[in-house]
């Protein structure tokens, strides 16, 4: 069991993505991470070299008493494997007495109960219901997804690999883009292949193919920045529509009455674009359960490095036995979820009799 953090023996927290490795220190119990630095993953051979660099060059040679590592990829006890970069190994190689390894979106989910209103921006819907299941997702180098479930003993994070489900292709244009990309060599159509930084570039390429034009490749940051370029603007529109449908899929799968939260490296940088897009209409556009989705808030996490906050909360929970999200535990008895406003059109399930439908409600 590790000691509480102090300025002399801080806790190291990290959020390791396919592009960026973010580090910070927690120097007091319950404190938020400070001394934050962001290092490029591609410039280091592996996690131990990046940790060594951070502690030596950004943290005054600090020696960590414990660490919490949020990794963009599957984790198994002390072992990690980045999905979109080469780093892999065991956390024991860091030589730190107590190390927790968790998924990066699991850490982001754990940050949610700690975030203030100034760290969140609405994308539509009602106020998020407290103490109900929450979902978090975010396009970055990849597409992360996780849930956060209230229990009698506090919040329970639910990691997964939801970015690798099939892409939520809905409109004729989206089908045409995917068909063009498939013909151009895209091997499969995971959601992450379209809803990520590389996905934005792929969507723009696909849109150009559909329109019979050629466009020199551009990175995601350029596509988002070029407001007066028609192809870039339409690419962002397609991205936002797909994102709305994907967020709805996650909300429906988890029953996320506590809200769907969006993080990652792209959406927080273009909140007004997403707000002015088809995102929310696509989120609510479900033939059977539109009323259910209308009652679910969609919110962008605009906090600085929120996954570090979640990684610190997880360590506090594991070391000091605090609620996993570092916040007061939810009520012992879960409130009844709002009843979904089911409005089933007569022709939605032509094979089902009214009696059969009502028995499922
Ligand atoms: N200003 C910007 N606008 C839009 N996209 C951007 C911007 N800056 C960076 N990106 C894109 O964000 C992605 C990186 O996002 P993020 O910082 O979440 O990565 P990461 O945490 O390393 O990745 P992941 O956790 O998904 O593996 C890159 O694909 C990059 O092109």
UniProtKB/TrEMBL annotation:
Residues 324-361 are annotated as: Disordered. InterPro entries: ATPase_NBD, Bacterial_glucokinase, Glucokinase. Keywords: Kinase, Transferase. Belongs to the bacterial glucokinase family. This is Glucokinase. It comes from Sphaerisporangium dianthi.
């Amino acid at each position: 069991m590790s000691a509480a953090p102090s300025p002399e023996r801080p806790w190291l927290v990290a959020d390791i993505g396919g592009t960026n490795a973010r580090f910070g220190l927690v120097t007091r119990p319950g404190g938020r991470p400070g001394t934050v630095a962001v290092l490029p993953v591609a410039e280091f051979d592996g996690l131990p070299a990046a940790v060594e660099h951070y502690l030596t060059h950004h943290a005054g040679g600090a020696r960590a008493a414990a660490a919490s590592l949020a990794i963009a990829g599957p984790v198994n006890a002390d072992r990690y494997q980045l999905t979109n970069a080469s780093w892999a190994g065991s956390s024991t190689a860091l030589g730190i007495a107590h190390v927790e390894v968790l998924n990066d979106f699991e850490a982001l989910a754990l940050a949610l109960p700690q975030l203030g209103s100034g760290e969140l921006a609405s994308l539509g819907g009602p106020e998020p219901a407290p103490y109900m299941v929450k979902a978090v997702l975010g396009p970055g180098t990849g597409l992360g997804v996780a849930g956060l479930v209230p229990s009698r003993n506090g919040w329970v994070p639910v990691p997964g690999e939801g970015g690798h489900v099939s892409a939520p292709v809905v409109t004729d244009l989206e089908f045409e883009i995917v068909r063009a990309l498939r013909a151009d060599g895209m091997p499969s159509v995971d959601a992450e292949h379209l809803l990520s930084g590389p996905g934005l570039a792929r969507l723009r390429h696909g849109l150009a193919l559909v329109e019979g034009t050629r466009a020199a490749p551009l990175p995601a940051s350029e596509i988002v920045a070029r407001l007066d370029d028609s192809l870039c603007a339409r690419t962002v529109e397609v991205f936002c529509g797909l994102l709305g449908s994907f967020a709805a899929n996650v909300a429906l799968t988890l029953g996320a009455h506590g809200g769907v939260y969006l993080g990652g490296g792209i959406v927080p940088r273009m909140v007004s674009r997403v707000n002015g897009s088809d995102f929310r209409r696509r989120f609510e556009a479900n033939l059977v359960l539109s009323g259910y989705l209308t009652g679910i808030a969609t919110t962008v996490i605009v906090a600085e490095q929120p996954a570090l906050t979640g990684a610190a909360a997880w360590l506090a929970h594991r070391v000091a036995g605090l609620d996993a999200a570092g916040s007061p535990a939810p009520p012992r008895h879960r409130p009844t979820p709002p009843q979904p406003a089911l409005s089933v059109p007569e022709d939605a399930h032509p094979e089902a009799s009214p009696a059969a439908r009502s028995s499922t409600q």
